[in-house]
Amino acid sequence: MSLMAEPDPTGRFGRFGGRYLPEALMPAARAVEGAFREAWSDPAFTTAFHHLLTTYAGRPTPVTECARLSEALGVRVLLKREDLAHTGSHKINNVLGQALLARRMGKRKLIAETGAGQHGVASATAAALLGLSCTVYMGQTDVRRQELNVFRMELLGAEVVPVASATGTGTLKEATNAALRAWVSETEDAHYCIGSVMGPHPYPWMVREFQRVIGDEARAQCADLLPAAVPDVVVACVGGGSNAAGTFAGFVDTPARLIGVEAAGGSAVDKGVPGVLHGFTSHFLQEESQVLEAHSISAGLDYPGVGPEHVHLAESGRAHYPSVTDEQALRALKLVTRLEGILPALESAHALAWVVDAAATGELPAGSTVLVTLSGRGDKDVQQIREGLR
């Protein structure tokens, strides 16, 4: 059985995951699980989902050979181009699946949380497509640094609710708190559309399955492109971890090394300790049982925890989770942009930074083949990039 199979009956991957919710939300979470199980085994649902991925989201996304970057680093670099999907990131894959599920369940509204804004944009997009209303909760700090995405959501018809916190930093953690509170009062009419492989069961599993298309496509594309059929190393950035989980699902049963790159200021796999937050147990940055604030130049990596399956993959030894700093990410972003004419999102720049540094130190032997999932494009981050490079 694949390591990335269905979680156990309690929704756990090894020691992590589960469903820790107030009693008022338990029926809603169980209803989502039941509806997903039924839909995911229904050919009519999966056909409709893949039809939208093809005709609306623009799949399959290509694998791009980076000739100039490869020459500079001494390793062969391939990019899985999720930045070319509709709305500019991998987020559209999961949201189209959840929006179809919400409609199947008779819901008329999507509730979403967002950090960098890409999940919010994808949620607003799917809601507009399928005739649903949409409310997106976003930390006040992220609202300021992602003004472009806020406007995109509003243009698509979504309500964006800024979330402040007297004790927090106004980022993804606070947005998730607010979205969960809203779901309590709107379970009859609304579906909570979680953007990553976190939250109560079945979300970590369900989101991974909707994102599995990344890894399945990349596996087939690499089989056509590479003499060995699979790359030596597969790399993706990790905040909550959905693009990495989707990518790893396609390669977990191959000899490829799996590398999930976290932000140094939010490296929950390495620096976190077991705890419970937002309905699931995983590793979280904590001190004396108090959840700490994460930091990253990338709003999408500014979360104090990580999806439970990633901690399970780390504990099993199947995947490894190094971290890189803001400065390393900015240097890699500039290098890739100058050499390949591709402006990656700051999230993706963390994955690229690990490749750049690992090639320089020899952790990636010369001649290795590396596949990097480019989870999104950097248009949304231009202001932060400009300020960071100054």
TrEMBL record:
Its cofactor is pyridoxal 5'-phosphate. This is Tryptophan synthase beta chain. PROSITE patterns: TRP_SYNTHASE_BETA (PS00168). The keyword Lyase applies. One of its GO terms (molecular function) is tryptophan synthase activity. Keywords: Amino-acid biosynthesis, Aromatic amino acid biosynthesis, Lyase, Pyridoxal phosphate, Tryptophan biosynthesis. PANTHER family: TRYPTOPHAN SYNTHASE, TRYPTOPHAN SYNTHASE-RELATED. It comes from the Bacteria. Belongs to the TrpB family. Signal peptide: none annotated. Its EC number is 4.2.1.20. InterPro entries: Trp_synth_b_CS (IPR006653), Trp_synth_beta (IPR006654), Trp_synth_beta/beta-like (IPR023026), TrpB-like_PALP (IPR001926), TrpB-like_PALP_sf (IPR036052). It catalyses: (1S,2R)-1-C-(indol-3-yl)glycerol 3-phosphate + L-serine = D-glyceraldehyde 3-phosphate + L-tryptophan + H2O. It is an enzyme of class 4 (lyase). The beta subunit is responsible for the synthesis of L-tryptophan from indole and L-serine. Tetramer of two alpha and two beta chains. The modification N6-(pyridoxal phosphate)lysine is found at residue 91. Residues 56-376 form the Tryptophan synthase beta chain-like PALP domain. Pathway: Amino-acid biosynthesis; L-tryptophan biosynthesis; L-tryptophan from chorismate: step 5/5. Gene3D superfamilies: 3.40.50.1100. It holds the Pfam family PALP. HAMAP family: Trp_synth_beta.
